[in-house]
Amino acid sequence: MAYMTTTTAPLTPALEIQYNRNLLETARREQILTYFAETKSVKVRSNSTKVKQRRYFNVLPATVPLAEFDGTNYKAPNKIKYEEVEYGVNFYGDYIMTNDRLPLLDFHDVKRDYLDILGYQAAETVETIRLNELLAGTNVVFAEQKATRNEVASSGAKATKQDLRIMALKLKRQRAKKWTTITKGDTKIGTTPIGAAYPLICSTELADYFCNLPEAKTIEQYAGQTMLLPGEVCKIGEFRIIDFSLIEPVDVNGKNVHFGVALGKGSFATTKMDSKGEIETIVHDPGSAGAGDPLNLKGSIGWKAIAGAAILNQAHVCRLESTVDLEDNTPLHFYDYSK
């Protein structure tokens, strides 16, 4: 009788790189907010709990004429002033269990599917952390110039062109820098150059509402699409509207209030999650647990990352609260809510 001895070995470096790449490609692709942030690279294995980011102040205009130099009258140097904003970071991660039947299902293809799903989860996790920080900002405009969220809900107030003008004025008055430069003109009929603008990151319903206003220019009307922002769907006034489905409305006495967040350049900071070391893919094949898995029956696939975010300048982040004219209340089916 022939006897077979089964042993297990850790993942080869090549296979580990491939698994990292599979998860990271999805996680990187699904992040929008990191595009608009001042980012800091924090490695998973650094055990960091705090991150510092500098917020610089502009220097006053130099309006005093320079005197003719007499050998002693040197002009005193100016100083670059900054404030250090410190924010906390935490570990986040999750995993799923696998078993010894996985090789029967085309092992590597199934693993790629699992890594793809976990990549989406990792991206949505860190984006939710960033979003919660932005939505907690103190600079807010309520639709139709209402005074509170409750007034917006009770009156069904919807964002107007005047509300967007107020938001833009708030940002410009505080010298918030716009994100985009003007796009080049085009000879195609019906297209228009798009001026410099602030990104306004909106819930899907609020983005749809803006795109259907008569003043809106959809991306199909842009003179060129090569300079589109991630998730961009249209432009209205001094804002380029970003559809961001992670923004959920809040129920106020039976009426949904939706959110949008306008950002000046350099207005908030976050940790990066788009390269090796900033997110860790952890794969344990069946049998890798040694005596803890004596029959080589179970394995796991997971991820771990460090994430955190902070607003650097409250005056350069402006939240909009509004109701909308069209909503879809079909129950959501893209998550597994069975836990």
Question: How is this fold's topology laid out?
Answer:
Blueprint (H helix, E strand, L loop, with lengths): L12 H17 L8 E3 L9 E7 L25 E7 L1 E10 L7 H29 L4 E3 L6 H7 L5 H13 L24 E5 L1 H8 L5 E2 L13 E5 L2 E5 L6 E3 L2 E9 L4 E4 L7 E6 L13 E10 L1 E3 L5 E6 L17
Parallel strand pairs: 1-12, 5-16, 6-9
Antiparallel strand pairs: 2-3, 4-14, 6-11, 7-8, 8-9, 10-11, 11-16, 12-15, 13-14
Helix pairs in contact: 1-2
Report on the structure:
This protein folds into 2 domains: 13-55 and 84-134 and 272-309, Major capsid protein gp5 fold (2-Layer Sandwich), CATH 3.30.2400; 139-268 and 313-322, no CATH class. The longest helix has 29 residues, at 107-135. The protein is 22% helix and 26% strand. Helix 1 crosses helix 2 (107-135). Strands 5, 6, 7, 8, 9, 10, 11 and 16 form an 8-stranded mixed beta sheet that branches. It is of the alpha+beta class and 339 residues long.
